[in-house]
Structure formats: C-alpha cells, structure tokens
Q: What sequence folds into this?
C-alpha cells in the first residue's frame, strides 16, 4: 500500500430529520414524493452529481435511519460516491452537528444542504465548492429579493404588527443551500454556538458569530426550499419541465 497521504476530500451533509409541519400532515418532508421519487433522493443525487463531492452524509429522522438506508439502497446513485446515514436531532442545528460528527478525518471541505431543496442545479453546487477550495472559509449561494422586507414588532397571531424599519432591499439576499465551509471552521462554529430555541436558522449564521467572514455567490431560482404546499406544486412543475427537456 502507498504511504502517500490521501488528498483531502469534500463531503456534503444533508439534514433531513425535519417533520415538515408547514407542508401539512403526512410523512416526514424529506420522504415525501416529488415526481414519484422521495425528495431526499433528489437532494442526495443533486449533491452526488458534483464530481467534487465524494461523501454524502444523510441525517435521517431520529428513529428513521434504517428506513432511509433502505430507501437509498432502492434508488440508483453514483457508484463513485460514498453514502452514510446517521440519526438526526430535534432542531436543524442539532441535526447538522450530528452529521458533522460522522465525518472521517480526511474531509477538509463540507457542504451543508437542505433535503428540502431537492432541485438545486449542479453548477450551483460546484460554484460553492470552488469558492471554498479557493480559500473562502464560508460560502453561501443567495439571490436578490423580489419583495420589500419590513422589520416588525411581532404581535399576537392575526393582530396588526407595528413596522419598525424597512431595510434597503438592494443590500439584502435570500440565502439558499448548499452552504460550503472549511471543515474546521464549521465544526468550531457548531461547538461554540449553543442551540437555543429552534436553533440557528442557517450554518453560515453560526460562523458569522465566530467573526469569520462569509461570502455570497450567485444562487439559483431552482434551489428554492420546499416549505409550504405551493412550493410542492412549483417543484413538480420544475421537475416536469426538466424531464420534458431531457426527452428532446
Ligand atoms: N430537527 C430537524 C429539523 C430540520 N431538519 C432539516 O433541515 C432542513 C430545513 O428545514 P425545514 O425546511 O424547516 O424542514 P422542517 O423542519 O421539516 O420544516 P417545518 O419547519 O415546516 O417543520 C430540512 O431538510 C429538514 O429536514 C433537520 O434535519 N432536523
Ligand atoms: C438554511 C436555510 O435554507 C437558508 O435559507 C434556511 O434558513 C432553513 O430554514 P428552515 O426554517 O429550517 O427551513
């Protein structure tokens, strides 16, 4: 056997342990079908489509790891990619941490990608990986906003909420995944920033709390998050358009 050190590798961690409450009653969101295939399988394929990603860690619902392992075995996935399934936690932040804990030592760069963003194009994945490999410790894909955003004083449900301010829209970005990180930076962020309430809403936010710079690269409209029922309608339409285009 060669005693040369193995080159450092890039892994993707896919938090998929959420219930999908905002999507309505049914199976855990990641296991629901999109175009006849579980949303999670689309997300796993989207990460494995990047030749830069050699390991995908899937963070399953806490009691659903065997089911997710079976699901992956039933679907065609690239042979050059390694897949690991670990049980998740009660918040997204805890689930990502459990995924990071499972990474082998030779992983130097990590993507964190929501199972709920099943249709992210491979070019977006590659752009994030490239930026990390070029030396950025934390990279997020993002898009400018179409709506004006107001900061409000949250009130009781259904009651009018006083507006506090209107941030300058041209300075705002809607952040997507995969978010890419130097592994040590992301692990440090997850160790230092405690889970409070629902946890941090994204991983780059934890890194920002360390004072480490985060940069934005262009996101993609098709990397939207399936959160509410209407998002599922859009996702089915995007998938149908892709399949029709592939047919010609
Ligand atoms: N305890 C949790 C909560 C969320 N997630 C994952 O984090 C991603 C983004 O979360 P979101 O879209 O909010 O999913 P849910 O938490 O399932 O949605 P909801 O808030 O509507 O229940 C999803 O892929 C989800 O599976 C996770 O791994 N573990
Ligand atoms: C990580 C994220 O997708 C970036 O926009 C988002 O913050 C996840 O939020 P959610 O409420 O857990 O879906």
A:
């Amino acid at each position: 056997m060669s005693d040369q050190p193995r080159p450092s590798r890039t892994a993707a961690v896919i938090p998929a342990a959420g219930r999908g409450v905002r999507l309505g009653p049914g199976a855990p969101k990641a296991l629901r079908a999109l175009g006849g295939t579980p949303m999670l399988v689309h997300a796993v394929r989207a990460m494995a489509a990047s030749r830069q990603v050699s390991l995908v860690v899937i963070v399953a619902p806490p009691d659903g790891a065997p089911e997710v392992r079976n699901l992956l075995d039933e679907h065609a996935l690239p042979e050059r990619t390694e897949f690991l399934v670990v049980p998740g936690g009660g918040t997204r932040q805890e689930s990502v941490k459990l995924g990071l804990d499972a990474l082998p030592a030779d992983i130097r760069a990590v993507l964190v990608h929501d199972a709920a963003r099943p249709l992210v194009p491979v070019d977006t994945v590659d752009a994030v990986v490239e930026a990390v490999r070029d030396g950025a410790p934390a990279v997020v894909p993002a898009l400018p906003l179409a709506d004006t955003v107001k900061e409000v004083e949250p009130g009781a449900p259904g009651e009018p909420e006083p507006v506090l301010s209107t941030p300058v829209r041209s300075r705002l970005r809607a952040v997507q995944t995969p978010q890419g990180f130097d592994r040590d930076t992301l692990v440090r962020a997850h160790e230092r920033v405690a889970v409070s309430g629902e946890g941090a809403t994204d991983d780059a936010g934890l890194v920002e709390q360390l004072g480490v710079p985060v940069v934005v690269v262009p996101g993609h409209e098709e990397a939207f998050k399936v959160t509410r029922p209407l998002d599922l309608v859009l996702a089915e339409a995007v998938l149908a358009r892709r399949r029709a285009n592939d047919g010609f």
